[in-house]
Design goal:
alpha+beta; Immunoglobulin-like; Glutaredoxin; four-stranded antiparallel sheet; 7 helices; 17% helix
Length: 417
């Protein structure tokens, strides 16, 4: 019995003492401090020079302009509808009276620009400028945010007294001239530094003469005398027959325009010929040249298209005598032209619309596909030269229609007769 008690005592001592060391569980054998563990950091201590400090990130929205979370984006083009790079766009809010200093945005090499931080639903005026040699080109459009399909045509004849100048280039510090003293006090003369003289050997006065190689086998010698001159007999020159002159206008007549037809090159409308709802032909070159044209793509099946028609009718009545023409293009199924024209006339008569209605879908021809219309209604404003300067897809709200009217007023006020 005494032997069993001794054995239990010995096993207990091994477990609490050397037994923990054998199984690596003794806390007294732990790794000493300072080896493998990061050193303690004290408040106010300088950072470790061997440990790189991560860069501090700027707060979110630090570089975004104040005002809103919407954008305006688009392209700057010239008179030939080619993108123009290295231009500047100044945006001005039409809703706020005091907007601070003017802000210019630089376009990239392809004429694309992005304006961030504008107010959603706000009306803005965008003025683009650039220089081609000594010529200043400019252009202006009115739009509302958000709009990512803004097109600003710029030309030399659009520059006027209200066109802002281009942003000035940053000035560079004057270069220091060798030999001048930098630390010159007022009233003291500048003492030039004497530079060491370097002797450069003079070039030879005459190049060594090289004897011309003698003519060898199968090599002909250059004749010393020139070739004989060709004698041209003198006399009156025969008169060539001239082409017959065209009677009247010198322009070549290519015949009547095909109806229906559309010639849209990029954002420039060359010509458009369609029949209206009463069977009469409307051609852009003859009936709309030199005018500001507002085109409304709509359909009798589109319930949202009717909301903006009273406003378009008012614009035609108010600005028609000053050079604005409003034209509606009805996009119907194109199966029965007579029934569709009657439906268009009936609807326009019930709404008392006075502007002209063209039939845009006749047989296989679809004017909506020619203009790449994505939905109805779609409003397009053409300049006097046939360029698309304003474009909107979908149901326009009152703020957008007000921005459209301001664009029309600006274009008509700047016209030269």
């Amino acid at each position: 019995m005494r032997a069993i008690s001794c054995m239990l005592t010995l096993a207990l001592l091994c477990t609490t003492g050397t037994g923990c060391a054998l199984f690596k569980k003794n806390p007294n054998n732990a790794q000493p401090p300072g080896i493998g563990a990061p050193p303690a950091k004290f408040p106010g201590a300088p950072p470790d020079p061997l440990v790189p400090t991560p860069p501090s990130l700027p707060p979110a929205g630090a570089n975004a302009p104040a005002g809103g979370n919407s954008i305006l984006a688009g392209t700057i083009i010239d008179a030939y509808h080619r993108p123009i790079g290295n231009a500047y766009v100044r945006w001005v809010s039409l809703d706020e009276k005091d907007t601070g200093a003017p802000i210019d945005v630089a376009a990239d090499a392809h004429g694309h620009f992005i304006i961030q931080g504008v107010r959603p639903g706000g009306s803005y005026k965008l003025i683009a400028r650039t220089k081609q040699g000594d010529k200043l080109l400019a252009g202006m459009v009115l739009t509302s945010a958000p709009d990512v399909r803004v097109v600003i045509p710029i030309r030399e004849d659009l520059v006027n007294g209200n066109t802002p100048p281009l942003p000035s280039a940053p000035t560079t510090p004057a270069a220091t001239v060798p030999g001048e003293s930098k630390n010159t006090e007022p009233g003291q003369a500048t003492k030039p530094t004497v530079m060491p003289t370097i002797n450069v050997p003079a070039p030879p006065t005459a190049a060594p003469t090289v004897a011309a190689p003698a003519a060898g086998p199968n090599v002909a010698e250059t004749p010393k005398k020139g070739l004989p001159m060709l004698t041209i007999p003198k006399g009156p020159r025969p008169e060539l027959p001239r082409p017959p002159a065209l009677p009247g206008d010198s322009k070549l007549d290519t015949g009547p325009t095909r109806v229906p037809s559309c010639a849209l090159l990029g954002n420039h409308l060359e010509n458009l010929a369609l029949k209206d709802s009463k069977g009469q032909t409307w051609e852009y070159k003859k009936d709309g040249a030199g005018k500001l044209i507002l085109i409304d793509f709509w359909g009798t099946h589109c319930i949202y298209c009717r909301d903006s028609m009273p406003t378009l009718n008012r614009l035609k009545t108010q600005y028609g005598s000053r050079g604005l023409e409003v034209v509606g293009i009805a996009i119907e199924a194109g199966k029965d032209e007579r029934k569709e024209a009657d439906a268009v006339n009936k609807m326009c008569s019930s709404m008392q619309l006075s502007y002209r209605q063209l039939m845009g879908h006749v047989g296989a021809f679809d004017a909506g596909k020619s203009f790449k219309i994505e939905g109805l209604p779609t409003l397009i404003l053409l300049s006097e030269q046939g360029d698309i300067i304003w474009h909107h897809v979908g149901r326009p709200d009152p703020a957008l229609l007000n921005a459209l009217e301001r664009t029309i007023q600006s274009r008509l006020n700047n016209r030269t007769f």
